[in-house]
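Sequence in, structure out. Go.
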Amino acid sequence: MDIILVTTVIASLFVVIGLAEPLAARLQLPYSVILAVLGILIGVSATFFLRTDLTDALNPVAAAILGLPIRSNVFLYVFLPTLLFQATLGMNLRRMVDDWVPILVLAVVAVVVATVSIGYALFWVSAIPLAACLLIGAIVSTTDPSAVVSIFRSISAPRRLARIIEGESLLNDAAAIALFGLFMGYVMLGIPDPELGSALAQFPMLIAGGALVGWLGARIAVWVMALFARHELAQQSISVALPYLAYIVAEQSVGASGVIAVVAAGLTLNLTAPGRLPPQALTNLRELWDVLAHWAGALIFILAALLIPRLLEEVRLEDFFLIAVVVVAAIFARAVILFGLLPLLTAAKLSPAVERPYRVAILWGGLRGAVTLALALAVTESVRVPDDIQRIVGILATGFTLFTLLAQGTTLRWIIGRLGLDQLSPIDHALSRQVIAVALQTVREDVAQTTENYDLNRDIVRSEAKRFGERLETAVKTAEEATDILDRDRIALGLIALAGHERDTILARVRERTISARMADLVLSDADRLIEGARTQGRSGYQRAARRSVAYGRTFRAAAVLHGRYGVSGPLARMTADRFEMLLSQRLILRDLGTFIDGRIRRIHGRRVAELLHDLLARRIEGIETALEGLRLQYPGYAEELERRFIRRTALRLEEREYTLMREDGLFGAEVYTALMQELATRRTAAEGRPGLDLAVRRGAFIEQFPLFADLEEGALKRLSRTLKTCYVDIGDVVLRKESPARSVFFIASGAVELESAGQTWRLGRGEMFGQMSILTNRVRRVDVRAIAPTTLLVLDEDRFRRLLERSAALREAVRASAEKRGIDPVDLISGGRG
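Output:
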């Protein structure tokens, strides 16, 4: 085929891609539907001009279009890895973890249910072998959520809902294609009725093998990319190679799922790259992949749509009945998950609630697209698949795809309108009024400054200022006097605005490089949780998200267990260092929010809301200071090193700004500027390095800060530091319960706990201990102990505590004082301890 003609056709397809997006926006249709329609029209037109006797002038172009080397391998090995890899890079994985239950249910469980439902429905109404029916079910189980996600975003649907749909899209394709490979093997081997249990039993092995290949490949790629820190194009080139190599190695060498390998590689790169690559390099890398995925997604839709006329050439009347069966079975299977299983998971508190109107929209928005057509094409091209199965697979997959695109896709926006999802709620109306009022105040200040700088005509300035002032006064009055929302909603609006400003502050600090990209992901996730919590549950949701931001997570506890029981300190050291830097970053950001409350929020919501927000902000700062104080006590000197690092990065940012300003003023040329920036980059790389944290070395210094151990000798302190175990507890966690056996004594390193017994309550803080009374009186515990702040405890077993009590006068005095508070005779207590 003439290379010039092929190049012209491909370039013309890019023109079509460029025109499709504005056309979809104008017609208010999903982008994928427009691409599919255009592809079908191009394919039908090419076929018509090639076969018609009207003219032969367009025959070369038509032949070039129909003769494009469109094979299933092109879709599966070229386009699909691009789409999956970009989807993983663009995700906020830490927020996805919050909704992992509904995502996995919609993606994996729903795919299995849809595959089985569609497969057996076809098997019962046709003479198609069960293996081929299950293969069809796997092919049409992949969903393209781009349409529903784009519409949800345009109607300001909850972020969490769009996030669930995006997470489903990623894992949905992976699960469906893994099942496709499994049943395709049975069809090619001529096994008509496979045992479903044994078939699905192989499914986890395909996933595990692919995940291992992807994880290992990404770790190697990140290590190599980190070596090329100054060569951004080299980093981007390695990232482009990663998904394709992971796919090929998993499929051809390991016999696992290549799709899973690509997903695992992207997830690993998403999680590890922020700590290893410069922030700007990572941003540019993601922008590159956004463009590649946009092109790949558009091309796969158009090229697959070109094949639809060919796939439907042998359609028969009875095939329409089978297409209807597939449609009904697919919708039924998806409805079972959305309206059956998902509410059960919500009732069991395993999944956040998804409101019924949104579930209806998700049900109708389960469009199928290019991946379904690509898998069907792979079946029709295989010489090992019987001809009759090739025909029916191609027709059913294509017919079902056309139904979802042309019937569901074109009516989805209308369905959403009928469900009332395109109408703003009262709180959203109030939020829009708040935004207008705040924006106009900022505009007034900026316009006043601009008119002063340009010395404009005073009469004109005065006239326009009066006109603008009237509009501003009306906007502020409307925001203040809104009667359609309650006071608690006003507080929620203030909290949403505060959390949004916090997020903007984080992004500004990232651009200034005073906060690393690694920490940016963590604190941005916390800010998103604050916004979502305030939006859905008001003050309580905001406070819950704030507490979570300083709490010890499950992974941190697991790392502590690894360190305490097995001596594996690497994960705990890394997470502790992350916690240090995250708390410092949050403290710096929160200290800037008070001005925002006094300025914009007070103007809109009044003094009472502003004071409440100040109180909530003060509590957050206090919680962060408490957590930081505990870490400083445990690892003296480390926080100071991180603060020095922050100062150095700030100085480098200011130095870069000065060089740029002087260069723009023409004080020196490009050669000098380049040399200065290269030197600055070298110093910035050195300043980005985080100081190491040695857990073992710091333990002894930590214990020396305890007044209870002040009179112990150095040797005894070292032995004690090796004996004590560290325990981390969150707010609300129960440390000890009544009637539990007394085996250990607890020393509070940071945080605070509350003891409750017989209606009385005591609070203990840093440097104090509890649990000793039950041991020394030989009784079961009579108190419940609960953490009232993120708390670090040092735990000592009974035998070592008794020996320590004999050696330490300070400890005996502390025990005596504690006994007197509770009305216990200290003489008998201490003598019992010595006995």
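Check: The beta strands are 725-729, 734-736, 744-750, 753-757, 760-764, 769-770, 784-787, 791-797. The first strand starts at residue 725 and ends at 729.
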